[in-house]
UniProtKB/TrEMBL annotation:
Residues 7-89 form the Ribosomal protein eL8/eL30/eS12/Gadd45 domain. It holds the Pfam family Ribosomal_L7Ae. This is Ribosomal L7Ae/L30e/S12e/Gadd45 family protein.
Amino acid sequence: MNSKLISAISLCRKAGKLKMGFDVVKEEVKYGNADVVLLCSDLSERSQQQMQYICQENQVPVARLPVTMEELWSVAGRKCGIFAVEDRGFCKMICSLCSPEDNPQDSKMKK
């Protein structure tokens, strides 16, 4: 499961639809460009809380990934635990590969 998820995130990055890092993702959420925000499983509690608050204010769904920052290092090119997906198709594909309890509800996704 994780290899398919990592491949989907890699494809999203190559298509230019993946933003990485707290500050970059924060700006994308505030400008309304993010369809979903992805958080790695080993992201610090403080960063998770801050990003969830920002996403809640801007009505952007958050999905927790069942992978660590270390596992996504090859995809991201750097150690990063927060990602924004800026394409509805990639958003659906990546969220479908997450476990159901980590998957944002369809009603929260941008239409």
